[in-house]
Design a protein that fits this description.
Blueprint: H1 16-28, H2 33-44, H3 52-59, E1 61-62, E2 71-72, H4 80-86, E3 95-100, H5 106-119, E4 124-129, H6 132-149, H7 151-154, E5 171-174, E6 177-183, E7 197-201, H8 216-222, E8 231-236, H9 245-251, E9 256-261, E10 268-270, E11 276-280, E12 286-294, E13 301-302, H10 304-312, E14 315-318, E15 325-330, H11 340-350, H12 354-365, H13 378-383, E16 386-390, E17 400-408, E18 414-422, E19 428-437, H14 443-453, E20 457-458, E21 464-465, E22 467-473, H15 480-489, E23 494-500, E24 509-519, E25 522-534, H16 535-546, E26 562-563, E27 565-566, H17 570-576, E28 579-585, E29 592-598, H18 604-618, H19 626-637
Parallel strand pairs: 3-8, 3-15, 4-6, 4-7, 7-8, 9-15, 16-27, 17-22, 19-26, 22-23, 23-25
Antiparallel strand pairs: 1-2, 5-6, 9-10, 9-14, 11-12, 12-13, 17-18, 18-19, 20-21, 24-25, 28-29
Keywords: Signal
Domain Terminase large subunit GpA endonuclease: 325-623
Domain Phage terminase large subunit GpA ATPase: 67-316
C-alpha cells in the first residue's frame, strides 16, 4: 500500500480540536471506515453541554461553614431552584428576575451560576452586591469555600494572594474569563469593562444612584451590550409597592409561578398564604403548632411532608406573555427548610405592628408591601358611630386615657386636644374633643390647657379617670419654644412630639432627645425631652383599623377596632381621614415614590390620633396582658367615691358639675391640680 504523505505541521494559531479532527481524517484514509469510526468519532463529538442544575448535581459540593447540609449538591432537595438556574442556559432568555422571600436558597443559586459559567462557559462575570462590604463578605464566606470544596473550580481558580494582581478578593481570573465582585454603592466598582454575565443580588437594597452616575443596575447592564449572548440575573426580596425596583422588573417578565399537584385530587395549583390554616383553643388562643395547608380545590389537608412531596413534583408555568425576560416568584411555603408552624408563629408575632408586619410580608411571602393609603370613607365612619357610647364617657373596658394636642397659629391661635381611651387588644375609643382658644404666645392660653389636662372623666362603669400622658406637637417652628416651655413645666406628664413623615421610619416612636429651651431670654441647655414619631406607619395602621367592619350577631369586636362615640361631629371625622398616600416621581432620580398628601385643609384629628397612639405605645400597652389591663381598671375602681351617683357615668364630662374638693387639714400640703399629688412631688402621670 502506498504510504500517505504526513500532514504539514500546524501553525501556532490552529486550535487543538481542529488538529484532532485533521488527524482523525488522516486515519480514515488508511483504515476501514467501520474500524476507524470507533477511534475518531469521540474526537469529533463535542463534550456534552450541561445545564446549570445538572452541573450543580454532578460537580458542586456544599461547604460545612457555608451550609447546614454539607456534601454533594442535590437540586431535587428544592426542585423549584432547577428552573431558575436552567433559565440561564436558555438561548431565548436574556434576563432572569427573581422576586422571592428569604430561606429559598437564592444565594446558593448565585453560587451555582457562577461556578457553572467558570467551568462550563468561561466568560467575563460580574456579581453585584448592595455594598462593597457585602461584596467582600460574599467572596470570603460563600465563594471561597465553594471553590475550595468543588474540584473542577479549585483547578481553575487559585486562592487569593496579596501579590497576585490577577486573583484578589474582589477580582479573579481564570482561563477564558474573569470574575469581578462589586458593590452597587461604589461607582469605581462599575468602571467600564466588558461583561457578559451580570448577577445582581438583593436588588431592593441598591442605592438610587452609584455616586452621581445613575442607577447601578442600569450601569452594570450596559457593560453587557457588546455581547450577543449576554445573560442578566437579578433577584431580591421586595419592598414597598410602587417604588420597588425588583417589582418593576417582575412586571415586565412572563411571571412564572411554581404549580404543584394535590396528593388527594391531583389538581395543580400555586401555593398561597390564604390556604394556610391553623387551630385555636376554646379561649381563642392561636395554635401555630397545628399549621397546615389546605388544597384550594378539594380542601384536603397537607402536612409538611405532603407539601414537600408536592414541590418535588411541581413545575414552573408562565402566567404572562414572554418578552425575553423570565420572571420567577417563590416564597417560603415552597422551602424545605421552613415549617408552616414557624411561618404562622412569625405572622402572629409581627402582625400587630405595621412595620414588622411589612417586613414579614416582604421576607416570608416574597410580596411587595401595599401601603393602605386610601383613606376610609368618612360617611361610613359617621354612620357606624357607637350609639351606646356618649361623648365625654370612657368605655368600661378603658384602662388609660391619653391626651394629644395640635397647636395652631391660625384664626387667632388655638390648641386642639383629643382625649383617647385605650384598652386590651389594641382597641381605642375617642372620648372627647376639646378646643382651647387663644394666642399661643399668651400664657393664659396655656393656663386654659392646664385646666383641661387636670380634669377627671368618669367611665361607663363609674371609675374616675385622669390623663396618663399628654403628647403635644412641637413640629411647628414658631410654636416650638412655647410647647417646650409647657412640657418642661409638666415633666413626666407632658411629652413634646415631632412627626417624621418618612415611609421608611422603622419605629412608631423613638427618643427621647434632650432639647434646649429658652426661658425669659435665657437659654437652658437640656431643658426638655423630645420624641420623634413615625407618622407614616401609624397612619397606615389607623386606616387599616378604621377599615374594620363592626361585628354582627354578638361577635366580639376585632383587634385594633376604633370606636367613635355617638355625637362625634362630621367635621372631626373628615379631619380623621384627611390624608391619602399618593404615588409621585422623584424629579432627580426619576423613581416613583409614595408620600402622604392632604385631601382637605384641616387634618388635626388625624395628627392627634397618631400622636395619642404613639404615646400609648411608649407606655408599652401593646405588651400588656389581659391581667395587666384588669389590674389597671381595678386601680381606677378603688378610687371611685362611695357616694358617687349611679347616673354619673351617663352624664358627659363637659356638662357634669365639678366635684367639691375635700376639706384638707392645715398640716397637709396643698394638692397640685394637674396630678392630684402634693405640690413639689414628681409630676409623672399615673400608669
Amino acid at each position: 500500500m502506498k504510504r500517505l504523505p504526513s500532514l504539514p505541521r500546524p501553525r501556532s494559531g490552529l486550535k487543538k480540536r481542529a488538529l484532532a479532527a485533521a488527524m482523525a481524517l488522516h486515519l480514515v484514509a488508511s483504515q476501514p471506515i467501520a474500524a476507524a469510526a470507533a477511534s475518531w468519532w469521540p474526537v469529533l463529538t463535542p463534550p456534552p453541554r450541561l445545564l446549570p442544575s445538572q452541573w450543580a448535581d454532578q460537580k458542586r459540593f456544599l461547604s460545612a461553614e457555608a451550609s447546614a447540609e454539607p456534601g454533594r449538591w442535590d437540586t431535587s432537595r428544592a426542585e423549584f431552584q432547577r428552573g431558575i438556574m436552567d433559565a440561564g442556559a436558555d438561548p431565548l432568555v436574556e434576563e432572569v428576575i427573581v422576586i422571592k422571600s428569604a430561606q429559598v436558597g437564592w444565594t446558593e443559586i448565585i453560587n451555582n451560576l457562577v461556578g457553572y459559567y467558570i467551568d462550563q462557559d468561561p466568560s467575563p462575570i460580574l456579581v453585584l452586591q448592595p455594598t462593597l462590604e457585602m461584596a467582600e463578605t460574599w467572596s470570603k464566606d460563600r465563594l471561597a469555600p465553594m471553590v475550595r470544596d468543588t474540584p473542577c473550580l479549585a483547578a481553575k481558580l487559585s486562592t487569593a494572594k496579596a501579590r497576585d494582581s490577577g486573583n484578589t478578593v474582589l477580582h479573579k481570573t481564570f482561563a477564558g474569563g474573569r470574575l469581578t465582585i462589586a458593590g452597587a454603592n461604589s461607582p469605581s466598582s462599575l468602571a467600564s469593562r466588558p461583561i457578559r454575565i451580570v448577577i445582581a443580588d438583593e436588588l431592593g437594597r441598591y442605592p438610587a444612584s452609584a455616586g452621581t452616575e445613575g442607577d447601578p443596575l442600569s450601569l452594570a447592564y450596559k457593560r453587557t451590550n457588546n455581547f450577543w449572548n449576554r445573560r442578566r440575573f437579578a433577584g431580591s426580596t421586595p419592598g414597598i409597592a410602587g417604588s420597588c425596583a425588583v417589582e418593576a422588573k417582575w412586571e415586565l417578565s412572563d411571571k412564572r409561578r411554581f404549580f404543584v399537584p394535590c396528593h388527594s385530587c391531583g389538581t395543580v395549583q400555586v401555593l398561597t398564604w390564604s390556604q394556610v390554616r391553623w387551630e385555636k383553643t376554646k379561649a381563642g388562643t392561636h395554635r401555630p403548632d397545628t399549621a397546615h395547608y389546605r388544597c384550594a380545590h378539594c380542601d384536603a389537608k397537607w402536612t409538611d411532608a405532603d407539601r414537600h412531596r408536592a414541590v418535588r413534583l411541581g413545575e414552573w408555568r408562565a402566567t404572562a406573555p414572554f418578552t425575553g425576560i423570565a420572571g420567577f416568584h417563590i416564597w417560603e411555603a415552597y422551602s424545605p427548610w421552613v415549617k408552616l408552624s414557624q411561618t404562622v408563629k412569625d405572622f402572629l408575632e409581627k402582625r400587630g405592628n405595621p412595620e414588622t408586619y411589612k417586613t414579614w410580608v416582604n421576607t416570608a411571602l416574597g410580596e411587595t408591601w401595599v401601603e393602605k393609603g386610601e383613606a376610609p370613607d368618612w360617611q361610613r365612619l359617621y354612620d357606624r358611630r357607637e350609639t351606646s357610647m356618649a361623648i365625654g364617657t370612657p368605655p368600661e373596658w378603658a384602662g388609660l386615657l391619653v391626651g394629644s394636642c395640635d397647636v395652631q397659629r391660625g384664626g387667632g391661635g388655638r390648641i386642639e386636644m383629643d382625649v383617647w381611651a385605650f384598652g386590651p387588644r389594641r382597641q381605642r375609643a375617642l372620648v372627647e374633643h376639646v378646643e382651647v382658644e387663644g394666642s399661643i404666645a399668651d400664657p393664659a392660653t396655656w393656663a386654659k390647657l392646664d385646666e383641661q389636662v387636670a380634669r377627671e372623666w368618669i367611665s361607663a362603669d363609674g371609675r374616675p379617670m385622669r390623663l396618663t400622658r399628654v403628647g403635644v406637637d412641637s413640629g411647628d417652628g414658631e410654636n416650638t419654644m412655647y410647647v417646650y416651655a409647657w412640657c418642661r413645666r409638666h415633666a413626666g406628664l407632658a411629652m413634646a412630639l415631632k412627626g417624621r413623615e418618612s415611609l421608611s421610619a422603622a419605629q412608631p416612636i423613638t427618643g427621647p432627645t434632650w432639647m434646649d429651651v429658652t426661658i425669659n431670654g435665657r437659654k437652658l441647655p437640656r431643658g426638655v425631652r423630645k420624641w420623634d414619631i413615625g407618622t407614616s406607619m401609624l397612619k397606615t395602621e389607623l386606616y387599616g383599623d378604621l377599615s374594620l367592619e363592626r361585628p354582627v350577631d354578638g361577635e366580639p369586636y376585632p383587634d385594633g377596632y376604633v370606636f367613635l362615640p355617638d355625637g362625634t361631629g362630621d367635621e372631626w371625622i373628615k379631619q380623621l381621614v384627611a390624608e391619602y398616600l399618593a404615588v409621585t416621581r422623584n424629579k432627580r432620580t426619576g423613581r416613583l415614590k409614595r408620600e402622604w398628601q392632604q385631601s382637605r385643609p384641616r387634618n388635626e384629628a388625624l395628627d392627634n390620633a397618631v400622636y395619642a397612639r404613639a404615646v400609648a405605645i411608649s407606655l408599652g400597652v401593646d405588651r400588656w396582658s389581659d391581667a395587666r389591663w384588669a389590674q389597671q381598671r381595678g386601680a381606677d375602681r378603688r378610687r371611685v367615691p362611695e357616694a358617687a351617683p349611679a347616673t354619673t357615668a351617663q352624664v358627659p364630662a363637659s356638662t357634669r358639675p365639678a366635684a367639691p374638693k375635700p376639706a384638707q387639714a392645715r398640716s397637709k400640703p396643698k394638692i397640685n391640680p394637674l396630678t392630684g399629688k402634693p405640690r413639689g412631688s414628681h409630676l409623672g402621670g399615673r400608669r
